[in-house]
Design goal:
By secondary structure, the protein is an alpha/beta fold. The chain has a single domain, classed as TIM Barrel, CATH 3.20.20. The protein is built from 12 helices and 9 strands. The strands form 2 sheets. A 7-stranded parallel β-sheet has the order 1-2-3-6-7-8-9, with helices on one face. Strands 4-5 form a two-stranded antiparallel sheet. Helix 1 crosses helix 12 and helix 7 runs parallel beside helix 9.
Length: 279
């Protein structure tokens, strides 16, 4: 265990960015997420880049919306710019968004909107949004759920807007599912299928996010034992590029980004494997 801790401390130097954070402008934020407090926290942690990525649906995209997204359009999330008063020469601030990909078909952002942002994160695994992101009948059915995750991932990589997708957020992690369910999802997808997916992401120049929200309370050994490490190792083997994101929904969760050191050490990547946005 001491040897792992030593290796992790070496890998901590690569954890220099977090481009997946949610402020109070995301309706699901757990706390009063204030931009300036996030900036101060990132400076203390020695980050070099901080990205704000509140949930957003572009009102130019006509789609039956949930109440959650009706209130969160571009004009809403871009208010973050006027809320940043903290001046810093230690940190590069990026303004992006996390949008949605519904039914493996509809992307919640237009080209004109994407061009106004520094980056765009797109999840394919917000499958807890039943009959919005994923058909309800697929829920709690491992075969149908895993097949849908593969289908939606590949559809993102082939999407006409793929050049605007910076990274796929928490790939293949079905949100709001317990760890044993997630493990069954990973087991249901073969190495060959994962490799086909990650080859497609690599060829589309879409990053793979190392999202640390799923392992907030896990030790290094528990992370290493997770079936998800097999998934990320296959992404690395395919030559994918990565981004780091805490997926914090409040100030107290920002520190989770440091778990990325464990993950990077386990799957064998360094800052050389980051997407160009954060280099």
């Amino acid at each position: 265990m001491k040897e792992n801790m030593s290796e992790d401390s070496n890998y901590r130097r690569y954890v220099d960015h977090d481009i997946h954070t949610h402020t109070h402008l995301s309706l699901c934020c757990h706390e009063a997420g204030i931009a300036d407090t996030y900036i101060k926290d990132a400076e203390k942690r020695g980050l070099r880049i901080l990205g704000f990525s509140d949930h957003m649906w572009d009102n130019k995209i006509n789609y039956p919306l949930t109440d959650f997204y009706k209130a969160q359009d571009y004009e809403h999330i871009i208010q973050i710019k006027s809320e940043i008063s903290e001046k810093t020469d230690k940190l590069k601030i990026l303004i992006g968004a996390e949008t949605e990909f519904c039914m493996a078909d509809t992307l919640g952002i237009s080209e004109s909107c994407a061009e106004k942002l520094d980056f765009v994160l797109v999840p394919h695994s917000h499958t807890h949004m039943l009959d919005f992101v994923m058909p309800k009948e697929y829920d709690n059915n491992i075969e149908k759920h895993s097949d849908y995750l593969v289908k939606s991932f590949m559809a993102l990589c082939r999407h006409p807007m793929r050049r605007y997708i910076t990274a796929i957020a928490h790939p293949f992690v079905p949100i709001c599912k317990k760890s044993d369910y997630c493990e069954r999802i990973y087991e249901a997808i073969s190495d060959n299928t994962f490799t086909e997916c990650f080859d497609a992401a690599r060829d589309a120049n879409i990053g793979i996010e190392i999202n640390t929200s799923w392992c907030r309370k896990l030790t290094h050994d528990q992370i290493a034992a997770s079936g998800y490490m097999r998934v990320l190792k296959l992404a690395a083997k395919s030559g994918c590029k990565f981004s780091l994101g805490s997926d914090a929904h409040g100030l107290s969760e920002l520190g989770t980004i440091e778990k990325a050191a464990d993950i990077m050490q386990i799957i064998g990547i360094t800052d050389r494997d980051f997407i160009s946005l954060v280099k």
